[in-house]
């Protein structure tokens, strides 16, 4: 029988536990209180941002490739909707983006940012990013990673030489100049350079002086495959990663929220990716913010511009933004994505899980069994292995573990846990530590 083995009973209970929690959570009353904010209301720091993305490059590409087959291809590709962005709202406003970041709530989902303007929360997530940009946001191809690659020998790569040239420190400005002045450039090369400019100069800009990325240069050799890549997902991840507190990492980032607060208090903050998406969402969610743009309203998109530049005007000030926020008529637009927040959850409530007959039967059998403490399920090991365990932990105190149940702990945590009791043998240490870990996960004894 399934329950004849204690290990099977333990594994089954751990698998059942999340559903038990979900069912319990779904029966509770949702609180309408918002999670804590990074900064107290009306106590926001002033600052500016170093925004590496250059949205004006979209206007340049529209201008330099006007009425060409290459631009028709781009227009019909996944990048086409970028040229439908409202031109008046596209010049980057560091103050507005800073205002949204300093008004953010402390929420658990690292890929969703909730910001409160006035009294209502505004959600910035992958779905909204895809809606604004029109970029594909599906899953990455198998084996694809976002890891940074070595670029030191890029100018020796055959694909790089063919498209970029032999110059090592080529910039996006160099590619722009080449695209604008080389009258004999083949159409395919024009298309490839334009796509690199869009990706490295606008969507995934990660340097103050944008440069082409070797990985993308290799990818663009197959233009169709390049345009089917989920650029929305990649750009969004790069964008939001520097907008929210980082993940807790022992000895490296032990106070993520405090670190983010200090970053936002600095005179300037580095923003990579495509932060313009958050700015456009702000204008969309709070239309009154458009009154801070000091030029007459017009409905032109980047596609409608005659020249290679975006409209130029003085950037809105922090005072302008605060005045809009204080205006009782400046209410956010209705948005079905805005939900009541009690635990920082970034998504609407999921449907309640209804246990199947099999789950119900197994649960009844489980509850009919006797209970024993979780440590009793651990098989005893020879003393030599406990001694090895004792030597390894102090030697690698910074080592970090992630258990199957998603509990994160370090060797340093184990040492701190053992120290107050002055346990004399590693065997006793391990059992006490294990029991503490299981208590943290379950808060009750395991049923067997």
From TrEMBL:
Disordered: annotated span: 329-350
Domain of life: Eukaryota
UniProt cross-references to Pfam families, sorted A to Z: DUF1985
Domain DUF1985: 101-240
Protein species of origin: Brassica napus (Rape)
Signal peptide: none
Name this polypeptide is given: (rape) hypothetical protein
InterPro entries recorded: DUF1985
């Amino acid at each position: 029988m399934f329950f004849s083995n204690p290990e099977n009973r333990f594994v089954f209970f751990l698998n059942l536990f999340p559903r038990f929690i979900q069912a319990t959570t779904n029966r509770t009353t949702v609180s309408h209180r918002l999670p804590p904010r990074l900064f107290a209301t009306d106590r926001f720091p002033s600052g500016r941002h170093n925004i590496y993305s250059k949205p004006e490059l979209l206007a340049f590409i529209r201008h330099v490739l006007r009425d060409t087959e290459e631009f028709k291809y781009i227009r019909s590709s996944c990048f086409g909707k970028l040229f439908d962005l409202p031109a008046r709202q596209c010049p980057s406003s560091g103050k507005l983006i800073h205002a949204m970041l300093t008004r953010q709530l402390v929420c658990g989902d690292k890929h969703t940012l909730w910001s409160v303007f006035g009294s209502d929360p505004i959600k910035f997530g992958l779905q909204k990013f895809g809606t604004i940009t029109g970029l594909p946001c599906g899953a990455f191809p198998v084996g694809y990673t976002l890891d940074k690659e070595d670029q030191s020998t890029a100018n020796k790569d055959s694909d790089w030489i063919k498209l970029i040239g032999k110059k090592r420190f080529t910039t996006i400005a160099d590619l722009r100049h080449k695209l604008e002045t080389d009258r004999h450039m083949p159409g395919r090369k024009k298309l490839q350079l334009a796509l690199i400019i869009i990706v490295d100069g606008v969507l995934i800009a990660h340097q103050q002086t944008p440069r082409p990325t070797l990985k993308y240069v290799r990818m663009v050799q197959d233009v169709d495959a390049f345009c089917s890549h989920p650029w929305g997902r990649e750009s969004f991840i790069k964008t939001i990663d520097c907008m929210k507190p980082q993940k807790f990492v022992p000895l490296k980032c032990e106070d993520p929220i405090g670190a983010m607060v200090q970053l936002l208090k600095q005179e300037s903050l580095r923003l990579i990716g495509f932060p313009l998406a958050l700015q456009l969402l702000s204008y969309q969610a709070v239309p009154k913010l458009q009154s801070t743009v000091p030029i007459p309203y017009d409905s032109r998109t980047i596609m409608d511009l005659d020249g290679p530049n975006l409209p130029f005007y003085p950037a809105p000030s922090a005072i302008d933004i605060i005045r809009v926020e204080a205006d009782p008529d400046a209410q956010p637009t209705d948005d079905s994505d805005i939900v009541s927040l009690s635990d920082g959850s970034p998504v609407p409530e999921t449907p309640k899980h209804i246990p199947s007959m099999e789950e119900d039967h197994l649960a009844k059998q489980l509850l009919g069994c006797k209970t024993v403490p979780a440590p009793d399920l651990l098989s005893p090991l020879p003393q030599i292995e406990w001694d090895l365990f004792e030597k390894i932990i102090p030697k690698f105190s910074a080592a970090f573990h992630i258990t199957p149940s998603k509990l994160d702990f370090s060797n340093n945590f184990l040492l701190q846990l053992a120290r107050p009791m002055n346990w004399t043998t590693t065997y006793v240490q391990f059992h006490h530590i294990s029991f503490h870990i299981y208590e943290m996960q379950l808060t009750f004894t395991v049923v067997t």
